[in-house]
Design a protein that fits this description.
The structure holds two protein chains of two kinds. By secondary structure, chain A is mainly α. Chain A is built from three helices and no strands. By secondary structure, chain B is mainly alpha-helical. Classes of the chains: A mainly alpha, B mainly alpha.
Chain lengths: 68, 147
């Protein structure tokens, strides 16, 4: 059981990482990009904007928690 | 670190990179062409084996002098840029200028990440990072991987 838990934790750490909000945000942005492309909008700009925004928010949260 | 621990560390690091490489090949193969994607990955594997065997011993000492956080910053920038590029293509989007968009994407992400480092240096409390970060002269102590 311990090996299964370690295996699951490895994949959680690999896919999700330090901040689950970034993983959720990227998944939503990917889905939104695919959806926009599907209806004819070439949404190449959505992922870079999302990545920069999520990184900024995550860093802000981490810096705020460090100061406390 | 003894030999076994070092072996396991390198093995796991290479396994993680292999999963990332597999993701790229799957994305390219699905959206473009399987034959070219597989041929490219096999050629890259052969080239990597030759380069590592030929240059590995020679660059070992100079690479050991590169600060750890600087290397993490460079690798994180490249992973973020290429990951964003391929993920958008995998979702069906077409980049302006096609592959040349990377020439804009990589430096843009590098500049924004450098700005974030400057911002963190101003806001974070000194001496709160892990020991390796302070040794590398980076008080922000970024220890996580790139998003």
């Amino acid at each position: 059981m311990n090996r299964v838990r370690t295996f699951a934790l490895f994949w959680y750490d690999f896919v999700v990482g330090d901040d689950w909000r970034i993983a959720v945000g990227v998944a939503l942005a990917l889905a939104a990009t695919a959806g926009l492309v599907h209806i004819g909008i070439n949404a190449w700009w959505l992922l870079p904007i999302t990545a920069v925004t999520l990184l900024g928010l995550s860093l802000h949260r981490a810096a705020h928690n460090t100061r406390r | 670190m003894n030999g076994l621990a070092l072996f396991l560390t390198v093995f796991l690091a290479c396994a993680v990179e292999a999963v990332e490489a597999l993701t790229v090949v799957l994305a390219v193969g699905t959206t473009r062409q399987w034959a070219s994607a597989l041929q490219g990955s096999v050629a890259a594997l052969a080239a990597l084996a030759v380069v590592v065997a030929a240059l590995g011993p020679a660059v070992r000492t100079p690479l050991a002098r590169v600060p750890e956080n600087t290397m993490k910053f460079a690798v994180g920038t490249m992973l973020t840029a290429f990951g964003t590029f391929w993920a958008a293509e995998g979702a069906g989007a077409t980049w302006p200028g096609s592959d040349a968009a990377l020439l804009i994407l990589v430096p843009t992400i590098a500049v924004l990440a450098a700005a974030a480092v400057v911002w963190l240096r101003r806001t974070a409390t000194p001496a709160t990072g892990p020991p390796d970060a302070q040794r590398d002269g980076d008080p922000t102590g970024p220890e996580g991987d790139a998003p």
